[in-house]
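Hey team,

Filing this mostly as a record. A colleague (T.K.) asked me to run one chain through the structure pipeline before their review meeting, and I want the input and output archived in the tracker in case anyone asks later how it was produced. No errors, nothing strange. Just documentation.

Input sequence:
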Amino acid sequence: MIEVKFSGLRERLQMLDRLEREQLPFAAALALTGTAQDVKQGLVDEMAAVFDRPTRWTLNSLFVEPATKETMKARVWMKDQVPGSGGKPATEWLSPQIFGGARDQKRSEKLLADAGQLPVGQYILPGKGMKLDAYGNISRGTMNKILSGLGAQFDKYANSTDSRRSAGNLKRYFILRKGNRPLGIAERTGRGANGMRMVIAFGRRPEYSKRFDFFAVAERIAEDRLPIRFELALARALGTRGGR
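Output structure:
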């Protein structure tokens, strides 16, 4: 996470009169919180620039912890979980982009592995025949249909059966193999070898290079904005005090 703090306050105090010193804690907390908000917005802009069609969940994945007169610091970091998404914490998908390295296993991969459909140590990747959503991802609806067809849903009642009502996905999706080696998941679109398409491929754990320079961007914005925010906050505090 990034913490916005003051430095050089002792020197600044020597330049203030009594009234300004009385208002300093309020002004400092206000300035720190405002700077953290600037940092958050700058990081959102950076994500929009470096990521390919980031989802609104990604762009809404940061939070600001305001400063108080007691703590004298504000924080900007990733939310434990994006409200309303029902998904995993933002740290799980953003951390590899910030620090680099391998990504964690997705919920769908865990379900497929538990159902014996995904080989040990393998991960899922979009196949050539997969239609991706507007953000370049496999849509949740499509993934749920695949999991249901392969009997991999956590809720057994959500899995397809031989009944007329739910047999569609059961016949539609299957594990494509080369000999005994599973290659991925295919979708039947017709009859024969030409009547199918590869929608998910099985492969090695994806490795990410560092793309989102979270800390450098945050520190640059904090250094630029904090002095400005402080002077504005102090003027506001003094104006409020003078109006009493």
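Quick notes for T.K.: The beta strands are 2-5, 62-65, 73-78, 101-102, 123-126, 173-178, 181-188, 196-203, 207-208. Residues 104-205 form one domain.
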